[in-house]
Amino acid sequence: MVHAFLIHTLRAPKAEEGLCRVLYSCFFGAENSPDDPRPRGPERDRLLRKEQILATARQVESMWQLQQQACGRPGMDLQSQSSDEPVPLQEAPCGAFRLAAGDPFQEPRTVVWLAVLSLGFTLVLDAHENLLLAEGTLRLLARLLLDHLRLLVPGANFLLRADRIEGILTRFLPHGQLLFLNDQFVQGLEKEFSAAWPR
Amino acid sequence: MFTAAAESLLRQAREIQAEELKKFCSRVCQLLQKEDLGPDALDALRRLFLIVSATKYNRRLEKTCVDLLQTTLCSPSCPEPLQLLCAAVLREMSPSDSLSLSWEHVQNTRQLGLLASVLLAQGDQKLVRSVGQRVLKVLESRQPEGPSLRHLLPVMSKVASLAPDTLHEDQTSALNKRLVDWLRYASVQQGVAHSSGGFFSTPRARQPGPVTEVDGAVATDFFTVLSTGQHFTEDQWLNVQAFSMLRAWLLHSGPGGPRTPAADDRSELEGSTLSVLSAASTASHLLPPQERLREKAFEYCQRLIEQSNRRALRKADSDLQKACLVEAVLVLDVLCRQDPSFLYRTLSCLRALHARLCGDPACVRALLPIARFFLTHGEAAAVGAEAVYQHLFTRLPSDHFHSPMLAFEFIQFCRDSLPLFGRNLGILRMSFPNLFKFLAWNSPPLTSEFVALLPVLLDAGTAVETLHLLLDLPCLTAALDLHLRSSQAASERPLWDVSLRTPGCLEALRDPQFQGLFQHLLRAKASGTPERLAPLHQLLQPLASCARVAQCAEAVPTLLQAFFSAVTQFADGALASQLALLLLERSDSLYQVPGYEARVHRVLSAQFLALCKLHPSLVVERAKELLEFVGSAGGLRGSGRVLTSVVWAIGEYLSVSWDRRCTVEQINKFFEALEALLFEVTQLRPSVTLPKCPPQVITALMTTLTKLASRSQDLIPRVSLFLSKMRTLAQSTAASSVHSEEDAGAICTRATELLNLLKMPSVAQFVLTPSGEVSEPRYHRDTNTALPLALRTVSRLVEREAGLLPG
């Protein structure tokens, strides 16, 4: 099952200014820690969750930067993609790594990430998940989000269109459940979504 | 794209003040209270979501606002986007004390699902359980035109993973029954299109046909996730969801709860070989619900395996087939662990599957769960699965080391399956050169995994070869890059570093002189005989500036630390000795990546001392090699760290108390060698061959010479003379051109301290060659033997003496 999904920025390797920003994040259920003796207020829990997400986003960013450098593409021209070309998602860089228990999530987790131009899409999964399915789901989500939120059109601001993101997630990743959707099912769900959110 | 406008929007959302937020909340309330929730309300909620989610600190929303959000969420007539946003805002604010959702009357299953998502985010086990109970009640209702259940099944799965004890046994059985229905008896006819005409749709609309397979053929058996059609019925949706949650559900509701340890299973399986061999499957309708679910799950997996053999018409379906294969094998693994009677049927099926997949490079990731299955169950069913492991460890890494996802999954497989390897651990250990290819190519994500894996991979037989390969890891990265350049087809997307061109290296690859070395570096199995790869280091020099090589080089020191902490657990004297010499030999034979040598030397120097501490006699045993090392100028490369360690070790351990075989001649020989070295390095005349000597080397040499003199006391006059010369030298103006003031001061101080000690030879011996008891606390607490006291006394005596003498 998926524990969290996030969309965040990716800065070019060796970029000095700017910060890694989490643009959207969603938790599916909460981690339990009945053994923690310290009194925990709800504010502290929320702060912890946000920090966990940010820590994960930063790690993904550095993994992506290292991968880009290793492939010999350090100074990628991120603005070169025009809005008409379909984004080659099949070749988008992706990777996975493990997070040990306590660092930053309580349980050991696996992180799967996909980078599309300067945006990172990341799934935080339980430790032993079907990674082929997770990767496929992530590519699907990225494709849907790019299409329906028109992320590549400059000026289109998806920060204020969270309802669409939520709409996509409720259908394609309900409560963090990875679904085995064949192409026809995907099309069916997409039609449903487009009906409720006309472009 | 993340533009400056978006950045400023985020900042605005973060910086909005409490007053402004209050005003905004009342506006939101106003809009939500209207009859007709139009685009203004949507826009306001979008902004509210951004405000709440943009900051990690809490945002206090007015109670009326929060209440209104909850009411809107539960109201039946609210459009979906608004409901989603209300749920999203409430979830963002979780965990929160001010929730008071009353959801008893909510009928719409979609809304129920949204409410559940808010409640599950609170992190309260009681709430999780009550969500589970409520959802279960709806799931158990058997109305044919009832609410759409597909919004609720994922909730059930989530609840089961968060709070496994939510359901009672009879509730689990009831749900098992329904899961069986959905998995096995979903409709095989396609669904009807939802026509927007509704009331006026023509009754003679074309009847939908049967569902099809992914290759277009008509479906031959029951509906699964790999069955397609134009439209889908409700139970077909539930089929998809039921399979998606099947594995987790089986694990949570199986015997012993989540993840029964493999060890227990094996002993059970071994005892039940008779039942394993019986191929008859019991008539399934007689089985209790859990067993029935397992039986149907088994049939489902078998069908998926058959369906994944078909040639899918669409690429997305082809990818799904592979994911289904993996899941099917994983579910079969769980089933066999829970009920060994499935084993017989599964083994034959999986062996056939493995044979089929071996020849298909696109399905390579599916081989891992199959291998894991054989590791878990192969022994119990008396099956020799060596062929599976051989293929896995020899072919896979060599062909697919460059795929980051496979690399990660492969190493995960190794780590997670460690307790299952048993007799087959040897295959894993001997394949370490192949495993290191994954590490060399993908070092950032895999370094921590290998640090955990190394202790198991190492044994006395492979330690030496492993250390050589670890030190050559960046060279392996370069060699793999070159290998890809030479072997990849021109039309494929390049996997190597495209920013670097290396025509010369490719030429040399064809040179037979280097081919043998390349083959050795790129070998798949431990060869037992290390080769000296220095010629390759030179050849691959142009690739040393490659980013991937640099990343690997940064990972090596961490891996070396892990190596040594593992090796020192089991190394005996002979191995420690061998490794120590290896360190010295390799310290000046490393692949020249910028900064690599310095970092590695830091680790090697510390580990040399650790090895000596483990096996102190090695200094005496390997006196000859150590003398050679000290005599050669190679030890002074870099910061001289390794040389400092060697000199220190000689000082510490070259004495009778550590090894009875230490003779006076040996001490004298070392003394002469070290004295000569010290003389050389302190020449103030600049020498072309000798780099500037760091002061640590000088002080270490002086200290060691003094220690040796304290053991063979006729050397004392020589040392004293030398030390006073050193002191004068350090204080002279000529020295200030070579050493900084601080360094010169340190040398001077040390020389003085040592000279003082030597004035009282028996004290010197006591201080510089303490007996083994020095590590006992008693040694330091006892006023007669305490070291600091002795030193202080000596200093005072010597100073007084110096004060009595003129000049």
TrEMBL record, chain A:
Source organism: Camelus ferus (Wild bactrian camel)
Gene assigned in the entry: AP5S1
Record-linked InterPro entries: AP-5_subunit_s1
Source species taxonomy: Eukaryota, Metazoa, Chordata, Craniata, Vertebrata
Any single biological process term in GO: double-strand break repair via homologous recombination
Ranges in a coiled coil: none
Protein name in UniProt: AP-5 complex subunit sigma-1
A Gene Ontology cellular-component term: cytosol
UniProtKB/TrEMBL annotation, chain B:
Domain AP-5 complex subunit zeta-1 N-terminal TPR: 1-279
Coiled-coil blocks: none
Every AP-5 complex subunit zeta-1 ARM repeats domain range: 320-437
Domain AP-5 complex subunit zeta-1 C-terminal TPR: from-to ranges: 449-797
InterPro entries xrefs: AP5Z1, AP5Z1_ARM, ARM-type_fold, TPR_AP5Z1_C, TPR_AP5Z1_N
Pfam families: SPG48, TPR_AP5Z1, TPR_AP5Z1_C
GO cellular component, one term: AP-5 adaptor complex
Name under which the protein is recorded: AP-5 complex subunit zeta-1 isoform X2
Organism field: Camelus ferus
